[in-house]
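[job 4417] fold queue: 2 targets
>>> target A
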Amino acid sequence: MARIIRAITKDGSARAFVTDARDTVERARKIHNTTPTTTAALGRTLIIASLAGSLLGEKDDCLTVNFKGDGVGGSVLVTSDWCGNVRGFIQNPEADLPLRPDGKLDVGGCIGKGSLYILRDVSGSNEPYVGISEIQTGEIGDDIAYYYATSEQIPTVCALGVLVDRDYSVKQAGGALVQLLPFADEEVVDILEKNASEMRSVTEILENGTLEDVLAQVFKGLEYDIFDEIQCGYVCPCARENTEKALIAIGEKELLDIINTEEEIEMTCRFCDAVYKYTKQDLIELLEKAKK
């Protein structure tokens, strides 16, 4: 399981959310059989969606982060609940790119240019809130910071990291989301900017330290309070009942066509790769339900 720690400076100038997400990203890698580059791209998106999702206020709220770029990885989509539990996929999990000249994974090339969409489906609202911004670098963290600054007018620092081991497994993963609050003290802003420029990568800190150490680096030189800690992970709520509803929803004619041409069909969840099989008799029973 992953942890998210949420904290705020004692003077109320800034808040920070940090997470250690190795288990979450590793599960996604195993499900989708990603390459090192797509592991990093999907992993970073899972991390920020988890952090942003933990900002939701009600248990039925959900958040979706969708990068629609022209890179080799294609679209990346991740959803999160209010506890930071996430699930997601990348359109082309088998895509890979050579390392950048600096030896790092080319996540920017994997994502490419395009648009970032963030949807918040909030309880009591008739329609979800949809925010859109242009992808800046494709490195995920930069794009999220730009989105918050331009679409929600919240000055934000976003540090995300996925360290892939030689056997392609996820060695370490984590992230930090830091946001200024209204009427932030300028001295606090200066300290946070200095910390951001000097801070080691989140994965480097987690390799030899703890999530609390990440938070201490973020708020170095500042007094702060931890106000919440939650556990989360890669969670897919799909169920056979949901696929049955989807089959019924396609209508009697389409169901009858399937019954007349197929002995058995399979429906696979895009998020967790779970397979739901339906025999001809199963489909006949669903057809009867569709007629009601």
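>>> target B
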Amino acid sequence: MIDQGWHETKTRIRYKETDRMGVVYYGNYLTFFEVGRAECMRSLGLPYSELEHLGFRLVVTEAAAKYHANVGYDALITIRTTVTELKRVQLRFDYRILDENKILLVSGHTGHACLDASLKLAKFPELLKTVIEAHFPELRR
């Protein structure tokens, strides 16, 4: 469900996601971005498996993360995901990862392109554009 432009997914930090210092290994935040993105799309009724069934793939073309605070094993985190850009061949998701006290841990974004079944650059399918614009009306042009 999208609330005030953001989808929220909660997960608990597993031991394997921490490093020797006992905090989440920085690279794992990109995995949390993926979890947030996939669950956001699922909540819109358009999981990645459906896009693949339609012959499309969303590939990551850019990823960025800014680290604000650490969190360790067994912490409950909230992954907030929103869509901030939808163009003919570009899609951008922004993320905020918060701890149980709503302290910002990480912010970031990923950029995506759409490929067709032959792995060639393609326009985003109308279905994807329609669904995203319905839930993120500020993207309509």
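[job 4417] complete. Note on B: The mean pLDDT is 94.
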